[in-house]
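Deliverable D4.2, example record:
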Amino acid sequence: MGNRRSQNREALSRVSTIRDEWGENSSLGRLWATLTTLAGERGRAVSVEFVCAVAAERFGAEGASLIVTGTTGVAELHSSIGELGRRIPELEVTVGEGPIRDALELASPVVIADLDAESALRRWPLFAPLAAEAGARACFAFPLAVGVVRAGVLVLLHGTPIAPGAATLREALVFADLLLAMLMGEQVTRIGKVPGPAEDGFPIVGPEVHQATGMIAAQLDTDPDTAFARLRARAFADGRPLSEVAADVVARRLRFDPDPDLR
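Output generated by the structure prediction step:
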């Protein structure tokens, strides 16, 4: 018990550097205590991945994603739950629009009860129909942000339309606040600085996509931004995940040739 209280104090001391009103009796403190107990019962540590997984369970989400920003503000997929949690962020990268990008850039929650509704289709004419086709009908994106700091986005995905109530949204925001505190604490411990403002670029990509982009840039004798745009365009045209097309490039099953119209 003493060790658990020590862990609580350590975690909450990180939080106190962000918002002084958070304490052991706050919603954040109670959530941390609950997660600590649950992790102990499951033989797990209270990691960022664990919190993300419990959030998916708590809100009945078929998929969840945790998008984090590094010191440069570039977003990356930190962890995912389920196929939707992996597929939907990648789909946003491919089409260049969507709720995750909006939540990070606006530092405001984006709650979409039905991605197949007319309002969602108007807002994201490329993303919304493809996300619905992939099986995501509701999407809730909660930014991990305070002031100018953008640490990432917690994304909850549902396979059926659902409109969350106020209590559900409040609880989800507490999960997002806890993830913010944990990520900032990890980054300060590791490199001595916190995430900064979100940048204009928003590629949520993994190492293989980075490698493929470099190879395409060499094949086309062009800059990385142009190479990445060509990779995204090919994935969109083929109706395939960006990671699959990137894997073909890295394995040399796919090569990009210069566009003759641009010569």
